From TrEMBL:
Superkingdom of this protein's organism: Bacteria
InterPro entries reported for this sequence: Brnchd-chn_aa_trnsp_permease
Keywords: Cell membrane, Membrane, Transmembrane, Transmembrane helix, Transport
Membrane topology: Multi-pass membrane protein
Organism whose genome encodes this protein: Amycolatopsis balhimycina DSM 5908
GO biological process: L-valine transmembrane transport
Family: Belongs to the AzlC family.
Principal subcellular localization: membrane
A cellular component term, taken from the record's GO annotations: plasma membrane
Top-level taxonomy: Bacteria, Bacillati, Actinomycetota, Actinomycetes, Pseudonocardiales
Pfam families with a match to the protein in the record: AzlC
Listed name of the protein: Branched-chain amino acid ABC transporter permease
Ranges annotated as spanning the membrane: 33-56, 63-84, 134-156, 186-204, 210-228
Cell compartments where the protein resides: Cell membrane
């Protein structure tokens, strides 16, 4: 069976679209609070982190930039770190690009709403994506991430170490739940194990973001080969 990306055609009520998206937005709210507290702790204040979350809307890029700022790095170092951490979107974009329809502005707008969470929750298996869910998830995640950043920046001293409250674990737990829904056959389990082993082998010595990128590429290549053979 070939791997073809397409949108789903089943009609779904607004409640059916929003309900599964709420945990994603909640995870972004928690993660945003952690980022806001971290940004405030390195002297960025309140408005700068909020504006950054609204305009950049990328947790990995923003965390990377704040880490560079904390070390008094240059603007180019911050941009380079953000680009490396966001390289995974090249892979994610290639999987969903065939499903994007409409004008160039419409496709660009939808592409801007692609996040780890919205991309994952919009999957319907066998290369199919629900673009309506992706857009709703992207918008709610943007709201959750930006509001969370503001709360974290304002309440930074009260929040303290985000890891102490478990805020840094919100996204990993959420993605494990999403992954479990897709482990329906031996092929899916094999690709998941390949991704875990690849990331684990790189995480202790490769720069942040690279293990995820390489693991995703390994899974995509293996999945494509298995799909062609089938």
């Amino acid at each position: 069976m070939s791997f073809v990306t397409e949108t789903t055609t089943e009609p779904r009520s607004p409640a059916q679209v929003v309900r599964p998206v709420l945990p994603v937005a909640a995870a972004d709210l928690a993660d945003g609070m952690a980022f806001g507290a971290l940004a405030a702790s390195v002297g960025m204040g309140v408005l700068a982190p909020v504006a950054m979350s609204l305009l950049v809307f990328s947790g990995s890029a923003q965390y990377g930039a704040v880490a560079v700022i904390a070390q008094h790095g240059s603007v180019w170092a911050a941009v380079g770190a953000a680009a490396a951490l966001n390289a995974r979107y090249l892979l994610m974009g290639t999987t969903i690009a065939p499903a994007l329809t409409g004008s160039a502005w419409s496709r660009a707008g939808t592409a801007l709403l692609i996040t780890d969470g919205s991309w994952a929750i919009a999957q319907r298996g066998e290369g199919r994506y629900d673009l309506r869910t992706l857009r709703v998830a992207g918008l709610l995640c943007l709201c959750g991430w930006t509001i969370g950043t503001g709360l974290g920046a304002v309440l930074g001293d009260a929040i303290g170490d985000p890891g102490r409250l478990g805020l840094d674990a919100a996204y990993p737990v959420f993605f494990l739940g999403l992954l479990r829904q897709h482990l329906k056959n031996v092929r899916a389990w094999g690709l998941a194990v390949l991704g875990v082993v690849t990331a684990a082998a790189l995480v202790f010595w490769a720069p942040p973001g690279i293990p995820v990128l390489v693991a995703g590429a390994a899974g995509a290549v293996a999945g494509a080969i298995l799909g062609v053979r089938r």
